[in-house]
Design a protein that fits this description.
alpha/beta; Rossmann fold; 18% strand
Length: 242
């Protein structure tokens, strides 16, 4: 790696580091995932490990990412924790090499949008899971919000609920749950990415949102969500027919 590559600014890493401090936001995501988690969890695109430690409360974790620097940060952060292993994997090509782990749950949080061939990744996830296994997806929503921050973070797309559901069904999954989340965040992403043309979410906004996310989550339980900044989807690999 050249010195210029080492010193290259990484907006995604900066945001991951900010999100490491957003403990309430991370716990909000974990609480959504928790009811669907099994005992052998494959976390694809673990980043710097913002969710990995919580996931490990449920059993064995194999946390994978393409970025060596992120994996090093995650290992350092979770040093001494049992039941967690890490592996560098090209998520677009190498997922099927993880078959031996025998995951019963695959967790993919804010990762699928970074992968050019998302349909192939879904197909590989389906092949990795046993009958009854689950794929838990958390992705950015609303294609109309795609702007400067999406480009900076390396997003190929944002998702509409119907499109994500269709891709899940077409790759063999039964969709048990799929809904929009974070209605309030729509305005902030639109203003930052479409009007101000920012490259990343400002640290101050991440920390402010972290202070109010628990209240927002409680309110959203009782409100209709025709749109939202994110989508949470649970796919089930159907059991074999007798």
């Amino acid at each position: 790696m050249s010195s210029s590559q080492k010193n290259k600014w990484d907006g995604q890493r900066e945001t991951l580091d900010d999100l490491a401090e957003a403990v309430h936001y991370n716990h909000w995501i974990y609480q959504m995932l928790q009811p669907f988690l099994g005992g052998r969890i494959l976390e694809i695109g673990c980043g710097t490990g913002n969710l990995t430690g919580d996931l490990a409360l449920h059993g064995k974790i194999l946390a994978v990412d393409l970025h060596s620097g992120y994996l090093l940060a995650a290992k350092a952060r979770l040093k001494g924790r049992s039941g967690i292993s890490f592996k560098k994997v090209d998520l677009g090509k190498g997922l099927l090499s993880l078959k031996a782990f025998k995951a019963d749950t695959i967790v993919c949080v804010n990762v699928l949008e970074h992968l050019f061939d998302d349909r192939q990744v879904l197909e590989h996830c389906y092949k990795l899971l046993p009958p009854g296994g689950k794929l838990l997806l958390f992705v950015p929503a609303l294609p109309s919000l795609y702007g400067s921050m999406d480009k900076s973070y390396g997003h190929f797309r944002r998702y509409a609920l119907g499109d994500l559901r269709d891709k899940m069904l077409e790759t063999g999954f039964q969709v048990d749950f799929c809904r929009y989340l974070n209605l309030l965040g729509v305005l902030g992403w639109w203003f930052n990415g479409k009007i101000l043309k920012r490259k990343i979410i400002p640290t101050s906004q991440i920390l402010l949102y972290d202070r109010v996310v628990r209240l927002i989550a409680r309110i959203e339980k009782y409100l209709p969500r025709p749109i939202g900044l994110s989508l949470f989807c649970v796919g089930l690999k159907p059991s074999r027919k007798p």
